Amino acid sequence: MMSRRDWVLAAGSLPAAAAAAAPKDIVIASSNGERACARAMEILKAGGDTLTAVIEGVTINEQDPDDTSVGYGGLPNEEGIVELDASVMHGPTRRCGAVASLRGIKTPSQIARLVMEQTDHIMLVGDGALRFALAQGFRDENLLTEKARLAWLVWKQSLRDGAGHSNWTDGLDAPVSRPGSSLRNQFPSVDEKTLTWALEVAVRPPTGTINCLALNVKGEMSGVTTTSGLAWKIPGRVGDSPIIGAGLYVDQDVGAAGSTGRGEENIRVAGAHTVVENMRRGMTPRDSCMDCLKRIARNFGDDRKRLARFDINFYALRKDGAYASAALWNGAIRDGKLARRQFVVNDGPASRLEDCAYLLERR
Ligand code: ASP
User: Fold this and answer.
1) Type and span of the H or E element at 286
2) Residue 317's beta-bridge partner residues?
3) Which pLDDT value is given to residue 187?
4) How confident is the model at residue 157, as a pLDDT?
5) What stretches in the chain show pLDDT beneath 50?
């Protein structure tokens, strides 16, 4: 005779209690998603479509020049060109779309949606994606803000050969840098705070992305992930964000999942798909994310030293509104203090930050 667990697996659906729960309006996102979740919730409350809600939400980040990890103002590739990746999934129609290495367009999530809606394909990349966006009426714009250009120049100037030589400073014909003052001399008009930030991102190339997942009262679900990817990447490098099943996955029968952080490690475990399949088999959203992190740790033989070189987060929203986020590390050390990993939840009144579960502890 089939056990209840076998029956659940065979039915390919949620545990009975979760399946029976009344759906509600709820949006979750990575920690940079407070405004995105608030906007998405407005749309859900007005009865709007879940995909429209999350895309309108993340468009705020994509158009914000101060968000240096998404859309306009994102940190560029090694040649100083901003290349964007995004994916979308619409639960009710079970369709999806994606763009990768897209240049010149501020809002890649909107282009990913058009790929889903207007073509017989799922993913467009590079020049083809740009030409598609132009054909859809979008404008080709310079996405490199002055702040991002400064950071890129600082990164270039930080590169040295084995003998410590750089093409910029301290050579026979180059300006001499004095300790602690070279950047200030080279960028006299830039304020101290921006210079400190530029130096930090030059030394530790950041990742950064927004993932946003939504459920509405009708039980419909959608998700989006959009990013400028890894700073100073090799041109053409594509991370996990636009890969359906890695940076994003939605199954209307089960739930939605997404990821931010080092994309290479996520692609290797097909993260978002793994999280959703874990939920399908009855794991909680939290355990589903933790299992995925364990697979990543396993790929490094659980070696904490190597794992300490990156971070990665998963976000999960189940069809009954249960949700969680889990990070590889409990937080990052900033100015000698631990900044905990958090994510954003909005289930009505306002966006709030909640702590992520985590696999490993930095002290
Ligand atoms: N996952 C993104 C990528 O690897 C970056 C990030 O989320 O920080 O491109």
Assistant:
1) helix 285-299
2) 256, 323
3) 74
4) 83
5) 1-2, 4-11
Contact (CB, 8 A) for 227 and 210: yes
Using CA atoms, how far residue 339 sits from 92, 207, 239, 293, 356, in Å, is 37, 16, 25, 20, 12
Query: Quick one: which atom of ligand 1 is closest to the CA of 262?
Result: 4
Per-residue pLDDT at 204: 78
71 Cβ inside 6 Å of ligand 1: no
- At 109, phi and psi to the nearest 5? -65, -35
Q: Specify which residues 209 forms β-bridges with.
A: 227
Nearest ligand 1 atom to the CA of 209 is 7
Q: What is the pLDDT of residue 11?
A: 44
What is the value of pTM for the model shown?
A: 0.91
Residues in the chain: 363
For residue 182, what pLDDT is reported?
Answer: 63
| Residue boundaries of the structural domains of the chain | 20-143+205-264+330-354
Nearest to 175 by CA among 188, 194, 162, 161: 188
Q: Where are the beta strands (DSSP E) in 104-241?
A: 123-125, 209-215, 221-227
Q: What pLDDT is attached to residue 198?
A: 84
Q: How far is CA 321 from CA 18, 78, 276, 286, in A?
A: 9, 41, 14, 13
Query: Residues 6 or more apart from 27 whose CB is under 8 A from it?
Result: 36, 37, 40, 41, 44, 53, 54, 57, 212, 213, 214, 215, 345, 346, 347
Q: Which of 31, 70, 227, 311 to mutate to test the pocket of ligand 1 (most atoms within 8 A of CB)?
A: 227
Closest CA to 275 of 293, 262, 289: 289
65 CB burial (10 A radius; 0-12, 13-18, 19+)? middle
Query: Which residue is catalytic, options 209, 225, 226, 260?
Result: 209
DSSP-assigned states of every residue in 3-38: -HHHHHHHHTS--HHHHHSPP--EEEEETT-HHHHH
| Annotation says 52 is catalytic | no
**In angstroms, rounded to a whole number, what is the distance separating the alpha carbons of residues 353 and 136?**
36
The helix/strand/coil state of 162 is coil
The string of DSSP codes covering 71-136 is STT----TTS---EEEEEEETTTTEEEEEEEE-S-S-HHHHHHHHHHH-S-SEEEHHHHHHHHHHT
